[in-house]
Structures are given as structure tokens and as C-alpha cells.
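seq:
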Amino acid sequence: MKMIYTVKRIDEDLDYGCEERTGPVMAVVILEDVDGVEHRMKMEDDLLYQRDINVGDKVIIDESGKCARQ
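struct:
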């Protein structure tokens, strides 16, 4: 059985140092599990849009380690 999380917040990942960004724009996703414990993960911003993941959604972590709609 997969753990279900609630998306609590989605923030832009600003941790790229003094250099210009290379690669995809990343977001920090704050998830809350059923016990109220918060978890943080980085995920490509475009993938969040493609999967239509927003604050308040219920998600699981797929086999690639990314959020997916429940």
C-alpha cells in the first residue's frame, strides 16, 4: 500500500548558488503524511504542471520518486 500525502506548499527552489541556473526549473514540494509529519522533496516545476499537482491535492510517490496524483 502506498503512502498518501497532502501537498501543503510548493515553493520555487532558490538554492542554486551564485551561478545561473542550468537544467530544469525546480520546485520544493512540502508534503504532509497521514500522521502530520512534513516531508520535503524537489521536483521539476514543469512536471508539477503536467501532472496538475497543486496545494491541497492528495498525492503518492511514484516508482520514479516523484509526486503523482492519487
